[in-house]
Amino acid sequence: MASLRRHEGYFMLDHRNAPSLTDAATVNAGLPIGAGRGLFEAPTYTCSHCQAVVFINPMRNRERAYCRRCDHHICDECGAKRALGAECKTMKEILDEAQEAAEKGLVLPTL
Amino acid sequence: MAKWSHGLTTFTPTAFADTTNMTDATYFGVVQGGSSTQRLIHQEFYLGGQAGASAPTFMLVARDSTVAATVSLGTGESNAAIDAATAALAAPQVVGNTATTKPQRSSTLKLLNLSFNAFGGIIRWVAAPGEELVTVGNTASLGELSLSAFTGGTPGLMGGHWIYETV
Fold first, then answer.
1. How many domains are there within chain A?
2. Burial of B131 by CB count in 10 Å (0-12 exposed, 13-18 middle, 19+ buried)?
3. How far apart, in whole angstroms, are the C-alpha atoms of residue A21 and residue B115?
4. So what's the ipTM on this one?
5. For chain A, what is the largest distance between any 2 Cα atoms, rounded to a whole number of angstroms?
6. Helix (H) or strand (E) holding B104
7. Per the domain annotation, does A50 fall within a domain?
8. Nearest residue of A to residue B110 by CA position?
9. Are B36 and A14 in contact (CB < 8 Å)?
10. If DSSP codes are grouped into helix, strand and coil, which group holds residue A100?
11. Each residue of B47-57: pLDDT tens digit?
12. Which of B39, B116, B139, B157 has the most A C-beta neighbours within 10 Å, making it the best mutation to test the interface with A?
């Protein structure tokens, strides 16, 4: 069985030779407290539903949203929608449909 | 097919709220499909701070709710194929930070937050294969990505590159 770690990208924030970024700013950016000081490296994943890039916070205790249909981690917002009964529709499917519609001269969908 | 590097040697961003016109040459740039069916795969973003004093800068990669028109490269901006043997496209992708119709960042489709201190800070994101950001076509809101500064902080001088692939 393939590991979900195959989806992980790489993120680096280097403030070793710079003043730090405040904790408020790093938290707003979706990063953990302290990420704005020194060197911070983290894996990321791209939400398969909306394509938002999510930094994997090593300190997180809460469960990470996961979609069984597309076998992919999803962002918290898409996870909440999925929990409320929204169907899984990946961004890849939306983009394929848009490309197909454009080839047929139809109006492209908007998000 | 072919990888391209969209670079900007040095610029000072202006902070823009969502869904407002971006002013020429004060955002990193936009990348838009060259035709209604062109697919672009965005793989890497890198920014290096060049400011001379502390400059917390909140850079965002987002889809645009209003796409730019008549786009051209600004001063110090480049868009070059990474492989010297890359063939010219019949419908070249549209890249630049100067436009007649100004791009507007979507308020809901922000994809990557690249907040850093531009006084010597460095920030980089690289996607795993198959996990890149993708755009299709040249219309809103699937057809264009922008990299620009969000409201707040003190945007400072920086340079960087944005690597993407035409398909």
1. 1
2. buried
3. 8
4. 0.95
5. 53
6. strand B104-117
7. yes
8. A52
9. no
10. helix
11. 999 999 999 99
12. B116
Tell me which residue range forms the domain holding A46. 4-103
Given this model, what pLDDT does residue A111 score?
77
Residue A92 lies in a domain: yes
How far apart CA B56 and CA B60 sit, in angstroms, is 13
In a domain, A111, yes or no: no
Q: Give the predicted TM-score (pTM) of the model.
A: 0.96
Residue B116, phi then psi, degrees to nearest 5: -160, 170
- Spatial separation of the C-alpha atoms in residues B36 and A100, rounded to whole Å: 10
Is A109 contained in some domain?
no
Question: How do the domains of chain B map onto residue ranges?
Answer: 2-166
Query: Residue B53 to residues A19, A106, B46, B117, B119: CA-CA distances in angstroms?
Result: 9, 51, 20, 9, 6
- The minimum CA-CA distance between A6 and chain B, rounded to whole Å, is 7
Are A84 and A92 contacting, i.e. CB atoms less than 8 angstroms apart?
Answer: no
What SS3 state is found at A66? strand
- Residues of chain B neighbouring A103 (CB-CB closer than 8 A): 37
